[in-house]
Fold these 4 entries.
Entry 1:
Amino acid sequence: MNPAPEVGVVLPERQYTPDNVQLMLYNAALWNGHRIHFDLPYATEVEGYPGLVLAGPMLGDWLHQLVDEWLGDAGMITSVSYSNRGATYVGETLTATATITTFDAASGALEIDVAICNEAGESVAPGTIGAQMFMVSD
Amino acid sequence: MTGLISEELLTNIGRQSKPQREIVTRRDIRKYAVATGNRQRKYLDGDVAPPMFHVPLFWDVVELDQLTPDGVSIDTLLPKFPLERAMAGGLDIEYLKPIRPGDWLTSVRTLTAIYEKAGRSGSLIFYEIVMDIRNDDEELVIREKTTRILR
């Protein structure tokens, strides 16, 4: 597990630049037919968005990925709390970030502040993830 | 209470959906893992489900004529609210057990809260839906609370 769990540790970031294909496959996996995710004339001309809107829960998934990759087989995510604060669009590059805010070495419980930020640096999906390290007992 | 929410509206609190039972397949896990850009082999191979896999598993499947013109399925658990424009919402999820191919899972959704708050440009209505997902041994696998804001 790298870096080792400690309060204040910042986990490696990850950038996402989803394209139309990824957005389509994501919504197809959900069975989500909302036009704002695939119908560009509808999204821009009827709804007034600047482009195809990324699905909110996809950003939520990315919050998990950052922490889950770091945990590997050493622990598991036990909870998440997040909100979608603003729309994001195909063509944007979004950055997932995570910082450990609490770590109880005795129990292995962790709390991690997570966020998805847009290119302007605004947090469009802030949240908190709870995780539990698997404790080795002997 | 400033009056947007009637007593009658509040009687909808506690409404429950019919249980929805679904099977987890390796193929569905793989599709979800690929679509979300996941990089971990155990998910890409579908050996175990990544967090949030319950989102596609329990997304409502309705027939074409039940979709609105913008392609959205109407949530029949919800009453008619005096405000209709949905703003961003939040999710709170507890993960209690891993999900693997072959698992049968059953979800029940409950409308648990309706309340009002003053926003910067007028009143806002909040509602909360809790979805409990259990396995065939009746063990809780995931509890998810969705909070939505209407303006």
Entry 2:
Amino acid sequence: MSDLLWSFLLVCAALGFGLSISGLLGWVERKQSAVMQDRIGANRASIFGLRLIGLFHPIADALKTVTKEDFEPPFALQPWHRLAPTLSLAFSMAALAALPYGDTVVFADRSWSLQPLPLSAGVVFMLGMLSLGVHGVVMAGYASNSNYALLGGLRGAAQMISYEVSMVATLAAVLFVYGTLDLGAAARWQAEHGWGILYQPLGFLLFLAAGAAETKRIPFDVPEGESEIVGYFTEYSGMKFVMFMMTDFIETIVLSGLCTALFLGAWHVPGIAAIPQPWLGLAQVAVFIFKTLAMIFLLMQIRWTLPRFRFDQLLRLGWKNLLPLSLANAFVTLWAVYLLS
Amino acid sequence: MSEQRSPSPYPLPNAGEETTAGLERHPVRAVERPPFGLRERIYVVEVWLGLAITFRHLFVNLWRHTRRALGLGGPPGAVTIQYPEDPAVVARRARSRHRLLKRDDGTPRCTACMMCETICPAECIHIRAEGSPAVIVEKRAKSFEIDLGLCVFCGYCVEACPVDAIRMDTGEVTLSALSREELLWTMPELLGDEPHGPHPLWPGGESEKRPGRFVY
């Protein structure tokens, strides 16, 4: 019973982490882009004259989207049109649960796992959830029953499937090194032998590129087509549109978390083992969240630095550059692991 | 508009006619396109170079924001003007609200020559002339109204004025109003003698409305 309760609490905490950070990412995106472009950024939302460097803007956004008219086009195919944003968001949130936020903690004469979903095939689960997210995109495009949305959905499907291939090949290389599919075990391996980025520097870069493409954000925002080409959520408004936006943000968090777990040592920093046992868990969670936030910061910076790829450039990069490189990386790694073992 | 405008004092070359005007001052320069080598094609290096620029801006600006927030001064971290609180900074050459100028003795410089009213493409200037008691000029403006609701801020009136009586250098650009009456500026207001307030449009009445003018 207490196991179940503990798992439930952990899942709630992971969801709370993902949702609060994704809410905050709207503020981070505005302010980070503003500061790097010599601007100030949104700072007008205030409560009793208190502006707090624009931190109330996410609340204002939420109020606005909740109270906004939820227009459903009469020609949309129901219930798929309503289902698509839910599906999109649900899969990305499910992936949050498998991240290794910390190792096991010994407290009150028993050990508590800090990973909400300690699967033995955690990486496969994460990849599955990220791949299922494509269904939301395609469903949104198809169910909108509009040519623009359909083309956006097809672009999204082509892009996400293309980059998943190289992502899987990149992850395969890392997993050859760790010899496990368990994210918790991979974290423990890194704590023992050194961070994954030391063994797979090229894999890290490739994973970053493929991961950025998975989040469907600039420079890979072809499915969305923020400014000029019209994307898969053209026919969505109000909260359903925001659910797609949140999907992108949560996918950013998930990818940053996965990157942290597989390349940046997850909850490990040198010397963390010296902390006494019950507090070690808290320190591990703090370290993991800090690293994840740092990765999000880097992804945000990339998003505000690079211009968008043209669609043919995007597919060329995916199939002709990333895929051969990641396959070569995987085969070289496999060979090296075979020779060393 | 049906009336003929006078030919431009700066004639353009006719089609097909070759001209070298300006070329001796601005010779054509061929700019070499930088070579697109391996480093550009693998993209990774260029991405990090771009990121270095944006990261530099980010951290320098954060440092400056922090210094100023702590009251240490230093250069500002952003070029933003917080507009409604801080006044808008208008360039000195920007065309803003018109003003009429006076001579040294305080009389308006305007001689009611109608050049500005004639050239005005929006037909927003409306002058009524009268005989001038001064010896040096024949006429003066009895009334001089500008309807800013029609004005397109082209500055042709300033260009056309032979006696430098009208300028657009007040720096006032917040000229919005809630009614059309508030957009009409009369001569004492343009001269700066009276504060601006709402006026009945075209105070001369129905007979003053010229044919073809937009009638409210």
Entry 3:
Amino acid sequence: MSESATPQNFDLEVNGISYPISADQGKNLLSVIREDVGLTGTKEGCDDCECGACMVLLDGQPVNSCSYLAVQAQGRTVTTIEGVMQGEEMHALQRNLLDEGGVQCGFCTPGMIMSAHALLDRNSNPTPEDVKIGLSGNLCRCTGYAKILAAVEKTAAE
Amino acid sequence: MSLNEAPKFVRADGPDKVTGSGRYTADMNMTGQLVAKFRYADVAHARVTKIDVSAAKATPGVLAVLTAADVPDLRYSPVVPDRTLFVKDVVRFEGEIVAAVAAVNAATAQAAVDSIVFEYDGLPVVTDLEAALADGSPIVHEGWESYGVSGDTVQRPNVASFSSIEKGDIRAGLAAADHVITSRYVADASHALPIEPRAVLAQWEGNKVTIWTSTQVPFDARNGVCETLQMPSSRVRIIVPHLGGGFGGKCGFHFEAHIAALARASKRPVKLVFSRREEFLAPDRRREGMIVDITTGVTNDGTITAREGWIAIDNGAYTADAAFFPQLAAMHVAGPYVSPNVFVESSLVYTNHQPSGSVRAPTAPQACWALESHTDEIARTIGMDPVDFRRKNTVDEGLEGPAAQVYGEIGLRRCLETAVANSAYGSQLPENEAVGVAVGWWPSFPGPSGAYIKVDADGSGQIITGAQECGTGSVMTLRYLAAEELGMEPEDFELVYQDTSAAPYDTGATGSQTLLNNGRAVIEGAREVAAQLRDVAADQLEAAAGDIVLADGFAHVSGSPDRNVSIVELAGIAAEGEMLIGKGSGTPPDYPTVSATCVGDQGVAGWAGPQFSCHAVRVRLDRDTGVVRVLEISAAHDSGTIINPIAAHGQVEGGITMGIGQALSEGTVYGDDAKQRNAGLLEYKLQTAADAPLVTTEFIEIPDPNAGPRGAKGLAEAPNVPTAAAIANAVAQLIGEPVRQLPMTPERVWAVSEGSSS
């Protein structure tokens, strides 16, 4: 058996909780989040930084977790889709995506929400063009993007 | 709440999907689970000389290695049974599976796969459709005559299925024309590409297997496992967790049997998750490449006298569900136009490419692109406005289509007028901008479908349905139908779906059929429960059951709203005796018969619930680079009655975006070795949010009496149909002639532009 010759031990903070991780130093952040931390809301769509389904926030910045080494995330804060809810309340992005019909199959949705979250964090008053550019790293095959863009614009306007 | 009052439609599965708590197949894990990996042939045409898996079997941590020798020796597939689970003697495309491995982790499984010795003698590859049809071509399936095809399927060497549609006298019709216009168009293959790569997890308990799988068609998947592993359906259960899109790519039976067989051999749960590259290469489902020759005869006043077509469709190496493609493509090349004389021949041609299969409106976007580009060529030739030409020649109520079906009230011409009126067609536009117009059509697919409805003691309802949700929202809509029958709220109902052992049969998320067929089943089941509720209420209110009205959560006596009892109370009473349980399937609408001569008939010449559409697309061309940008799309669709507006708009917007990709960037590039050269999202470009045009949609709501609930027709596939065609017509206006290849990449547009200006 050839997997994980020397596991690396480190702590990883995800959604405000610190997890002790023992994983191969070559393991990507996405796999550690899904397999070691046990949060499966973050999706793998391409393992190639092309689709954005694995988007998480690292110290508030959007990162394709498929192409980021988990060990490099130690000492930093990771936010996944499971950390977006505000207590028992949905974040406005989540609510507006549902209200506007921006969710179909839902597989791109977590990554899309994380990118939108990062966009609104750095620009609370984005133009429609800003929103398009901010989400252009997240592929959606269902919606044609229109209702997703509308949901993000509505959130920004609230 | 009445459906028409529903201002917004919020999905029952929405909270799962926006919070990350929803489970997709790849998110499921079982104790003791092994990882599956496949060894692919990685050669497109070859005769096998050696398969040696001994090193793989001896690898520590490997619990099962399977090849063709380990499964029943049979060929499968609907209509044309030409497929085997594993490579046997001949490899016919690069993604064929030589062996399957189950091991304790991915690295071990991959090492075992790499250790498999696979040797072969290469055979000449068949890649060109016309060469494949020529005498002396290498034959992809030696012995094809013995395959035992079903129905009226017609086969020829290297042709899996041939169909023709003939009406009137084509020679006389062409002779009567003032102009005869002939065009050739060639479309590349493309991909469905759901963002969720497929996954399968199988676990045996005793002699039964449960398979969690990302399929659009759970019952097809079950039947495939039953057929290939020789098991009764009572021992195979398919459960689909949330499904991350499909677009046809996850229709059909794919890898469920491989994983079930690995799980049986290893006595462990086994899980397969595809990489994006595998998703490109291995499934029997890509959109088919196509060559279309069209000839149309017209008189000087723009009347069509004859239409002739010749179509070659790239089947790839195996037939999957594609046997009906030739007839369907023939309908689209003849198109929604009135012509007294029609003759179209259409062949599904074997090659050594990945197999084709139903991807969102199979054959239609390519064939429509060819036909509608040709239609604009006709209009240019005779000096007629292309919209006027369509006004004059499209099918309408009382008129006869290409297979001689006579239509009832249909909305094609209203779609044309609406889409054009909502666009900038005919206005003065900035330089390098133009508006192209195209019309399209697509059938609805009536079929059997079932559901159970129950209302529990506390008044909570359940809809237990065989239907499959792939993202469209059509399963979500079922709650509204049940609620209205029972005077309850949609939120009162839980949906139990995507489980073959829980619910009656449904065709699945395919053919835009869920609302059409399962909607009928749910309504019938809910009516059974409504009758039961009325009986209980009649006892309580001392009235006749026929006088009981169910509304707003209460049963009341007609004309006396104060004589009422709540449905919750009735449900509690019923739970003590005759319980509230309904079942429904209903009778599917009829398929119209047609009088045209249909050789190789596959049942898709007579269309129930025909859907019509028109898209008017405004584009801008960068002449220096050939880059086409889509700015605005005005869409009008006749899909009958619209029951769930927000989902309907979502289908149109999503289908349009997929159509833009197909028009401009999405095409599979094959090497001379018949292997894909752009099997990744870096090389195969999808549309992004930054590309999203402004889409305006209007629905022309004409209830179809021979379709679904309230006269609803299908919708999910139709928006894909005329998008590439409309873009092409805008581009042709700008560069003076059509780009005769799809996708219309910048290189191709630039080349035509340069050629026509030099």
Entry 4:
Amino acid sequence: MKTLLVAEYREGKLLGCTSELMAFAKKLGSESVMFLVGSENALPKFAGKLYLADATTCGEYNPGGHKQLLLEVIAKEKPDMVVFSHSSYGWDLAPRLAFALKAAQFSEVVDIVDGVPVLPVCNSKLLRKVTPKTAVTVLTLQAGAFNLTDEPTGSPSIEKIGTAHADTGGNLVFEGYELAERGGVDLTKAQVIVSAGRGIGKPENIEIITRLAQVLKGEYAASRPVVDAEWADHNRQVGTTGQIVSPKLYMACGISGAIQHLAGMKKSEFVVAVNTDKDAPIGEVADVLVVADLKAFVPVLTEKINNL
Amino acid sequence: MQFKLTDEQKMMQDMARDFAQKEILPTLKEDERDHRFRPELVKKMADLGFFGCAIPEEYGGNGCGFFESVLLAEQLAKVSGSWRVPLNMQNIGPSVTVNRFGTREQKERFIPAWVKADSFGFFAITEPNSGSDVAGMGTTATDRGDHWELNGQKMWISNAHVGDWGLVYAFTDKSKKYKGMTCFIVNLKDNEGIVTAPIETKLGLHCSPTGEIAFTKARIPKDSILGEVGQGFKICMWQLNNTRVSCAAGALGIGGGAIEAAINYANERTQFGKKIGSYQMVQAQIADIVAEHEAAKLLVYQAAWLKDQGMPNQHQTSIAKLFASEAAVHATSETMKIFGSYGFSTEFPAERFLRDAQSLRVVEGTSNIQKTIIAGIALGDVENR
Amino acid sequence: MNILVCIKQVPDMESRFKVDEDGTWFDGADLAWRMNEYDEYAVEQAVQLKEETGGDLTVLCIGPERVKETMKKALAMGCDRGVHVVDNESFKKDPFAIASIIAEFAGPKNFDLIFTGMQSQDRGSAQVGVLVAEMLGLPCATTIVGFSFDNGVISVKRELEGGVKAKVTASVPALVTCQLGLNSPRYLTLPNILKAKKKEMLVIPVADLSKTQALEETTSLYFPEKKGTGLILEGDVADLADQLIKILKEKTAVLA
């Protein structure tokens, strides 16, 4: 069994998912090689072979070009599985590659049991096991689903690729990045996060959340619906398309726990959920579930903590 | 017989539910506390076509009938009893009535404005000293040659102090009793002889504005009469028979909203180690209110359907109104009991449902008046119209 | 402009699910069905584009008879015609098989733009849109949260992680997959709901379009084991606050 792990790079940085790809390969018990369109200045800790293309010539978002590079590596390495993170890079590129390989693709894999991938259905209310009808498969892994117990070590042996053809992407033109609004906050470094969900009901109630975050000396955050409603800035969003956080304390207030949100916070050390619905999926990852209306409960809690 | 909603009706129901959840619910608690009426919300409802039911397309009609309006009223009231009222103020009250009795000029002038909510509608019948006894009203209209002069006072009038054009009932000839009453289309704004004031002392329906109107030598143009002089009582009864079904639909909503809350609570709350819904006494409470609610639903839908068919429906409308409002009062009362102490708390919706439901057996003819109508038709003393 | 939007009917995610007799999918009976949330944004964007540029907008949906109800919603939002690919077993088809059906239909029609949701709420594969584009040889931008069209070129913003967006352009014909928050899907109006009734609904048996086999198969569907390790606190808010403070002091360092 051999896996090709596809690492990610953006704007001078290696993205954080590499160790999860390795954790997956380890759990599967397969040997692995890695692929990266990135830079020699930001290499993953990986004791194996790394096929490295230069992002300055091959483009950071250039799915057509990256697909070609991957196909070359695949022709050479003949992996059984090509593994991506289920991220904006992974879910965009994986199906293109799967189609070129005529391979089955399994999206957002949460576990692998005896070599069989497990995928979520209906917001993780259900799980399903799947079998491919193709020899090669392409997988994307849910953020946070696979973790190494120890920090990875080692340096990769690099084989440079993509030097012959700089850009074969063609039909999509990448025009640049648009950064999150200024005054942004790095939630990934916060020790305490108090997060607001749809349950806050209206924009003014975000203050209930910010006030608690303040007395806990932490940051406030929000789930996707709150950000979509423009009740909080996008840079406050926790989840698959927001920030992946791992604070010492995560308080989810009025958050039911959509799969995309859970993926963004389930690595938190201690999770407290405040929700009126005892059966909300957030309860699955919460260490403590307070069954209450946040609008009644949180102000009381804030006051008591403030008076400690 | 056909008991299934069409796909279109289901979509309307979904849309109204969605609208109520997204546009009414988020600020409802504060709006209730501050007795806040939100005119912009009435405009939004108009933009979605809520007020064009049972109106010809040429006057802004949406191609739907009473039945669809009833579906909307039910869904709105499920979230807020106050917010089903605009359906009567813009559409089922003034618009439908002017469409039935008005001249072509009147229809063109007034109906599209109500349907689009460019003009806030109302209808003024009740007075400090006359409620159920409509013909006991004291407001008079006197022919002054080039205009009518209105004198008198109206009370408990929805939209009184926010209203533009609407219907005012007054005696043009008190000596003719029923046959001396006339309906006028009146603009409450910009008339020196008309003063309006809000009534802030209601038990419920806090987001629906209610007020009083005083007419003191108010000059009303000659062409303000709807129908004919002396036709007012007939028009009034015809109109109430329509607004009544919308009120009954509001009862379905308030009762249904309370029942939903009660069921959720009975499933969540545990006492003595079991969810309270597993106790037979709570089950009996739930069974009663659910059964009454389902029966009320069939009655209300039937009454609306009969109206759309142009068939006699006064009997069925009054039965629906009586039964649905009493069922709603019962449902909200049982819900409050199921909620225990939380039912008594203003933090939870049970008490609001209970307060709002109380209005239902008063407005559009009290429960006693409905019984009078039902019995009169049942005994053969009055014809079902 | 000749536009296609592809939608899926999914169960209400609040439903109480049951595993079906085969043990490979959920039981469809007794579920409330809705338009996939992502697809609502796709339909809204497609309708806005049609209103802006004129042209013709087709909505396509694969599934049993009941999906017509969801299609009517798309028609009431402003699509011109529906294409219902009748397939009582669409739930068994994988993203590849579904994409093949759409590509088979769309290929000869030469659509200028195809909109899909970024993923479905039930399967969540996030593959179908991209696969359709690959099959038809179209440029494809996924997960868009911004869209504009000018003179044959689409400019989109792709949502990346951490609030960053990638700005991407492509010439039509092209395909985009729509993320939540792309726009504000409109409420249906009563007149539009009734007008939708009169719009054309083309019915195509799936056999006419299905030329491929699925590349994967679900072998079992099951409920995740309830962890249930969490502590559940209920009662008066003041008591709850005291209990929680005690727990935070014991279990975390944040209230030291």
